[in-house]
């Protein structure tokens, strides 16, 4: 038991600090449990290799994997973009209508495709709604994340947390588990209505305007002092050199954005082009570096800055400036632009990036990137399409994609409806119907076979597989019993309803610090033992833990969707505390009361 507690403590610290990605920590936990298990060198955890690897064979893990594929099939049809255009036309410049459209779109969608995927798909739409309506995107993106969590509570498949909780509860023998598709929908509606009311009232007042409504991206990223045009003098020593050898590989902190030669304007790829006298380059650099660059390379500054001339026109004409969010599981996480050869790989230039409220415009090449960082990228339309095709990135603006499979819209929606219907009628287990739906997405042409593997967030899959044995170890070593006894003793003579509320609060706090999936694996065995010890409904207590783990509002790291909007919204860490804490407390009461009314304790 002590060994398992030690592993849990180490895991919680690593989950919170993230010196390595959380999925790697989860795999490390799994390996540690097996090494110290019954068939290892010593027997300190009681976990056999079969138990340690059971997360990979878990129905929860496979179901979540299949849901990613189903979500991708819907996304590839472009149906969400069609919805976005309709909503943009309806919302106008009314912030209230924009907020209503955001919540009204993401809530129901999150109930039927994974809510993390729903936010990734809808983020460009919401950003476009804010832009067209002259509203700060900060006012809409945090509600987008929160509303997706409300929607995730509506069905079993709304979030990986629900699916995992269902299996863990079933393994413990909790009455009512495994959960059916709409088993807790009534409670989810209860929570969604209360949360939506908050976002329209106090939440709307507390949500800050971190990013001013913009006319263009150069203005939003405050690039005026960093984007300048320079011309090559006739006596310049770099005439005849390529752009790469003359500028990109120099010691100067400079990026070449575009080349103007006579009447022609060239975008990426610029690196192989030979430099000629009279060429005009748009460059990203600061003023001090610019002075050194002009002296060393024989350049002169053109009268106007790029912000005021060509780059703005290029953005309107060629859609060559976009915001790109680093997604969970991206190859960029923990790497730098230099080590990944980003410019050469995508023929794209990163002009700046935002990490929460911080704008970084200098020395970017050697800054290690994190999930949620928002890059301002200048590239050709083809390069942007390639970026949009990768699961490593979320394009934060609406990009017209010629490869959307519009004709497959009814097919994809029909497949998802079939998966939900078959599972709801209990004709097949959810894992089987989800796999069948994934297969049909490929057979009907909604997804190409090569796109299946790209659509899966493998970090989430490995996280689930890694933490599931931790719950088994908690139960088999008696750790869950010990914690439950401590909670029962501390609760003393408190009523069952208060103890139920405390279970919600404890789980919510834990979820905001570590992964929601780790929290549910750790807390469900404890909730089961607490309920058994005090003679309460085990199902009610498991439901409180499940809902608390599915709704983490107080930190950007508490839930993946919070990280998605962190950079695009320009939020500070304290914004999540300010807006999310009252909501977390409200839902602690609402969920507890809802369980008492709908389920009983």
Automatic annotation (TrEMBL):
It is a multi-pass membrane protein. InterPro entries: Cit_transptr-like_dom, DASS-Related_Transporters, RCK_C, RCK_C_sf. Signal peptide: none annotated. It is found in: Membrane. Keywords: Membrane, Repeat, Transmembrane, Transmembrane helix, Transport. The chain crosses the membrane at residues 26-44, 56-79, 99-123, 144-165, 177-200, 411-436, 456-474, 486-507, 513-531, 538-559, 579-599. GO terms for molecular function: monoatomic cation transmembrane transporter activity. It comes from the Archaea. The keyword Cell membrane does not apply. One of its GO terms (cellular component) is plasma membrane. GO terms for biological process: potassium ion transport. SUPFAM superfamilies: TrkA C-terminal domain-like. Residues 214-299, 309-393 form the RCK C-terminal domain. The keyword Transmembrane helix applies. PANTHER family: BASIC AMINO ACID ANTIPORTER YFCC-RELATED. This is SLC13 family permease. It comes from Haloglomus irregulare.
